[in-house]
Design a protein that fits this description.
Layout lengths: L28 E2 L6 E2 L5 E2 L3 E3 L3 H6 L3 H13 L4 E5 L5 H6 L9 H16 L3 E7 L22 H18 L5 E6 L2 H4 L6 H13 L5 E4 L1 E2 L13 E5 L11 E5 L4
Parallel strand pairs: 4-5, 5-6, 6-7, 7-8, 9-10
Antiparallel strand pairs: 1-2, 2-3, 10-11
Helix pairs in contact: 5-7
Length: 257
């Protein structure tokens, strides 16, 4: 007898699952009398920020898997925002391997938006501090006396405003970005109570009026100078203590009439 051949086995490969929907974080705002940041629907956001000052160096060096791991690490511990500092070009930052500067050219500029988008994909806001140092703009700090090396030099100030233009115009399309003018201005070369910082902050607000902005972190100076219009909040860095893991900061919201 003729034994019929069995029907061929047809293996159906299931289609790839659709990618997860992109995360879009809403712009944050402040409200009078509230100590919280708020989403557009009026609800307060429990803003929990980790400082990741030199993390942009990892992005510039193409260490994307490490970035993904760090972002996952932050989110798994309830962090929903990171503070990233630009213009880190002093000798110290180079020794730490965490330097970054617009002097790197297209590599620096072309990475900003993808970096912010990667953070947003992990559900992270990014407080982008524009000036972690004054060296890329021609400033030469004295790390012993820490004088003002900016205010009397118009070429430095002009370069800083040009940099501000490019950073904000490049990144303000991202709703997960907040802006900070400078990290500890008095410590890095701006001097105490810097009018240059105020003008740079106003410049940011002119370019991105709906984004939150703060001027810079006072450094245990008992000064409220940077609690000034049009800043949305004050970031004060307390004195460093070993028992506090060497650093602490507090965000004070500022409402304006």
């Amino acid at each position: 007898p003729v034994i019929p051949e069995p029907d061929p086995v047809v293996v159906v490969v299931p289609p790839d699952p659709p990618p997860p929907p992109p995360v879009t974080l809403p712009l944050l705002s402040t409200q009078p009398t509230s100590r919280w940041f708020h989403t557009p629907d009026g609800h307060p956001l429990d803003y929990r920020e980790a400082t990741a000052m030199g993390i942009y160096r990892l992005w510039l060096d193409g260490e994307y898997e490490r970035i993904d791991y760090l972002f996952y690490y932050f989110r798994s511990r309830g962090i929903n925002a990171i503070r990233v500092v630009l213009s880190l070009d002093s000798e110290w930052w180079h020794t730490q391997g965490c330097q970054n500067s617009h002097l790197e050219g297209d590599k620096f500029w072309s990475g900003l938006v993808p970096f912010l988008q990667c953070a947003e994909g992990h559900g992270l806001y990014v407080r982008l501090c524009l000036f972690g140092g004054v060296e890329p703009f021609g400033g030469e700090p004295d790390w012993n006396a820490r004088p003002d090396v900016v205010s009397e030099h118009s070429f430095i100030i002009d370069a800083m405003h040009n940099f501000t233009d490019q950073v904000v115009e490049t990144t303000c399309g991202q709703t997960n970005v907040l802006y900070e003018v400078a990290n500890e201005p008095a410590q890095i070369g701006f001097g105490d109570d810097s009018s240059v910082i105020l003008l740079l902050g106003q410049h940011i607000k002119d370019l991105a009026p709906l984004h939150l902005m703060n001027f810079g972190a006072a450094t245990d100076e008992e000064s409220i100078f940077y609690a000034n219009f049009p800043s949305d909040f004050l970031d004060e860095h307390f004195a460093r203590h070993d028992e506090w893991d060497m650093h602490a900061s507090i965000k004070r919201l500022i409402s304006h009439p």
